User: Which sequence fits this backbone?
């Protein structure tokens, strides 16, 4: 059984999908780094980068709604930066009282928090486009081609491959529990037991899953080692980048470098 809903790749006949994985990987990483290095409050540059990634989304034919929905996943992690609103000194906007504590919301802290939220949101869109327009094996090969350490690429590959195996094990355990759970049409008979009983069953399933995963990982490693695996996934030699690829890479990196230069000039 294969669990396809975990795979973010969506095949499309777009220019973004046809672009070499090495070029897409370098441009996506450069885009995220550029976005993270922009100073707080550079709203015009944020809009510029959002316009760029929005144009890429349209060219990829993935659908703007698809990318925007998944980019919302960044918002819960942004709340880790929420204390900046109260800890960065500056012009006070609001001074709420929390028990015996007197908090101060500063203009500079709020600006820093909103900047982090916007930059995280835009960066995640670039990662979504990269993952949805490039098969994961091609991404692994591209990582090795640009010099990512072999061990790190091997960890990524094994983690991705056996994530599906782990989900298969979870589905098997869920089916086994459902097959052993009786149901009744009588309204006064409650199926499934109490909340404590359900928690006990879920804990047992989690422990069983851990033991199964540990045992399978040991068997997989021994099987791979017996076949001569040394940490390197060998593939056919990659074709050289064509002129179009080099031109796309140069224009993209040049625009990102220009954006960083403008941000430096704005700060100074």
Assistant:
């Amino acid at each position: 059984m294969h669990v396809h809903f975990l795979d973010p790749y969506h095949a499309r006949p777009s220019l973004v999908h046809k672009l070499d994985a090495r070029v897409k990987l370098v441009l996506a990483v450069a885009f995220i780094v550029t976005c993270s290095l922009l100073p707080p409050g550079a709203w015009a540059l944020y809009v510029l980068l959002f316009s760029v990634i929005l144009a890429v989304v349209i060219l990829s034919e993935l659908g703007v709604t698809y990318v925007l929905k998944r980019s919302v996943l960044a918002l819960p992690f942004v709340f880790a930066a929420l204390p900046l609103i109260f800890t960065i000194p500056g012009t006070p906007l609001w001074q709420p009282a929390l028990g015996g504590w007197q908090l101060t919301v500063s203009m500079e802290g709020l600006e820093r928090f909103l900047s982090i939220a916007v930059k995280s949101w835009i960066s995640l869109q670039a990662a979504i486009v990269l993952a949805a327009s490039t098969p994961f094996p091609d991404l692994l090969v591209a990582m090795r081609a640009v010099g990512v350490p072999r061990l790190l690429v091997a960890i990524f590959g094994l983690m991705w491959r056996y994530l599906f195996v782990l989900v298969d094990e979870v589905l098997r355990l869920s089916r086994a529990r459902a097959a052993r759970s009786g149901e009744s049409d009588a309204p006064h008979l409650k199926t499934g037991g109490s909340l404590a009983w359900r928690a006990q069953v879920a804990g047992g399933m989690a422990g069983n899953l851990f033991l199964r995963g540990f045992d399978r990982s040991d068997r997989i490693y021994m099987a791979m080692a017996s076949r001569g695996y040394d940490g390197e996934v060998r593939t056919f030699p990659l074709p050289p980048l064509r002129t179009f690829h080099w031109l796309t890479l140069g224009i993209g990196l040049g625009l990102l470098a220009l954006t960083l230069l403008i941000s430096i000039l704005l700060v100074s």
Observations:
- The longest helix spans residues 195-226.
- The radius of gyration is 24 Å.
